[in-house]
Amino acid sequence: MAIARDTQSEGNSGGTSITFAHTCNGTERLLLVYVADQDSTADNVTGVTYDGVAMTKIVSLRAANLYNRGFSMWGLVAPSTGTNNIVVTRTNSANNVNALGMSYTGVSQIMPTIFDTSDEDGVIALTCNVTIANDGSWAVMGATSPSGVPSAGTNATYLIKDPDYSGGENAYAVDNSGYGVISAGAFSLQVNSASSGKMAGVMVAFSPPVIAVGKSFSQII
């Protein structure tokens, strides 16, 4: 079974939590949530849940080049099917927090461990790079730029953005769906800025279930 897009969702808030609905369908599911916290307090986001189940923080970035703001990607394998709430909690409500939910089917049921971060100033494009372990893998990148609404760059296809992203510092996501499946080896995704400036983001790669030669069915990332 090949990896495929499922659904996307978004939420934003100026409070200490965001709650928004997300629907998961299909089999061999993976839910990812990209969180862009505009507060500069270290470890301000304390957790993300889906249907009351705690998600795992796969990667996080404290972006020194983007006002020391926090960016992270959270994951949950085998999330509940149907429509349930994603809840993001944090300790400080001084500034907005934005979150994007993205689910996929046909994914290994072991939590992804391949990721990258990028934090730049004075750039027109932001790139994240990973080394893919298995053929047929996919990758998702969440990015933020205060220089207007970004666009999908090299190898990337637009996935979802915060609807309030008219020129502010919110959340934007791409994946490789237009590029096609990824072969093992080096791979990158790129997000372009509307103009030169500050950009930050995180990227996660995930594989389909893999049958290990000489072993029983095994799922590897």
Explained architecture:
With 221 residues, this protein is an all-beta fold. The protein has one domain. Helices cover 0% and strands 58% of the residues. The chain is built from no helices and 15 strands. Strands 10, 11, 12, 13, 14 and 15 form a six-stranded antiparallel beta sheet that branches. It has a five-stranded antiparallel beta sheet with strand order 1-9-3-7-6, with no helix packed on it. Strand 4 and strand 5 form a beta hairpin. 45% of the residues are buried.
Number of helices: 0
Largest sheet: 6 strands, antiparallel
Distance between the termini: 15 Å
Helix % is under 10%
Please report which band the strand proportion falls in: under 5%, 5-15%, 15-25%, 25-35%, 35-45% or over 45%.
over 45%
Number of domains: 1
Q: Uncertain regions: pLDDT < 50 for 5+ in a row?
A: 215-221
Quick check: average pLDDT? 91
Shape: globular
H/E element sequence: EEEEEEEEEEEEEEE
Task: Tell me the Rg in angstroms.
Answer: 16 Å
By DSSP, the count of extended strands is: 15
Structural class by secondary-structure content = mainly beta
Quick overview:
The protein is mainly beta and 221 residues long. It is built from no helices and 15 strands.
Question: Could you name the key traits of this structure?
Answer:
221 residues, mainly beta, 6-stranded antiparallel beta sheet, 5-stranded antiparallel beta sheet, 15 strands, 58% strand, globular, disordered C terminus
